[in-house]
Amino acid sequence: MIEQEKYTLNDGHLIPKIGLGTFQIRGYEGVEQILTAIQSGYRLLDTSTNYDSEGAVGEAIRRSGIPRSNFFVTTKLPGKYHHFEDALKMIEESLLRTGLSYFDLYLIHWPLPKRDNYVEAWKALIAAKKRGLVRSIGVSNFEEDHLDKIIQETGVIPAINQNEIHPYWPQEKLLKINKKYGILTEAWSPLGRGSKELEESLIQNIAQKYGKDTGQIILRWQVERGIIPIVKATSPEHQRRNIDIFDFSLSSEEINKITALKQENGRVDNQDPNEYEEFV
User: Fold this and answer.
1) Which sites bind substrate (predicted)?
2) Rounded to whole angstroms, how far apart are CA atoms 75 and 272?
3) Beta bridge partners of 72
4) Looking at 43-57, 77-91, 182-196, which range is the least confident one?
5) What pLDDT is attached to residue 28?
């Protein structure tokens, strides 16, 4: 088992530097897949009400035999529950689904600015934290305007902003904005979700140099930039490889070259947070 390094969030809580994403990991098979990841050393488990995997995450934690306090569990608020009371009830419902007494991190999944209820949702997360339902609160897919608005309205800064980040979409501007506020950045689809990034000759050459695979190079590039990659893997082999990225470092030149792979339309599924209407 690989012991993970950790970051300190702006509220003082510790979070592992890599996490397991559980999108499309569900049911009894999902429980087994999460268990193998736990056995490989994963302690940051990222789920969402929209992923339908909250129950599997909770059951895997119970079956692992490892104390709850050793895990960092994240879930997310769906867009249809952005109103204050709805959001609080959904947080409670997610706790019931997982069988946990608290979440380490709770995120607003998407800002949905066309509906413009995300400030109300953020106020609900603040209230949930005060009630002890969650320990840290944050957002997902928020851009500068969305961050500015919730901070100005409430005075509360998110601990995390989880965004789409991979070599074709490196999010340099957003990283600077998050750092300005002291917000830690997480990456969803950190490998580009089956894109050609894993086949880039530049990344292949770097992988050969370090005796790693291209996925490990991309994940290390994320960590070197101060980002927590949330990576989905169902096979034990892939899970072990993804977490085995803490025994080498990339040079500044290598990091810059990978970042320079950025593409104008680099998003994996054209999900612009200012336009995207979250599935509900």
Assistant:
1) 109
2) 21
3) 44
4) 182-196
5) 97
- Which tokens is 173 given? 């501007």
Cα–Cα distance for residue pair 85/64, rounded to 1 Å? 34
DSSP 90-144: HHHHHHHHHT-S-EEEEEES---TTT--HHHHHHHHHHHHHTTSEEEEEEES--H
Asked whether residue 200 is assigned to any structural domain, the reply reads no
State the average pLDDT over residues 210-223. Answer: 98
What is the identity of the amino acid at 61?
Answer: I
Taking the C-alpha atoms of residue 92 and residue 231, their distance in angstroms, rounded to an integer, is 26
Q: Looking at the domain assignment, is residue 267 inside a domain?
A: no
- Kind plus residue range of the DSSP H or E element containing 186: strand 184-188
For the entire predicted model, the pTM comes to 0.96
Euclidean distance between CA atoms 64 and 57, whole angstroms: 11
109 annotated as a binding-site residue: yes
Sign, Cα dihedral of 196, 200, 206, 207: positive
Note the pLDDT tens digit of each residue in 95-110.
999 999 999 999 999 9
Report the percent of the chain where pLDDT is more than 70: 98
Summarised one tens digit per residue, pLDDT across range 71-92 is: 999 999 999 999 999 999 999 9
Query: Does 220 fall in a domain?
Result: no
CATH code of the domain covering residue 176:
3.20.20.100
Domain coverage including residue 156: 6-194+227-234
Q: Give which of 108, 104, 143, 142 is closest to 122, Cα–Cα.
A: 108
Domain count along the chain: 1
Does residue 250 lie in a domain region?
no
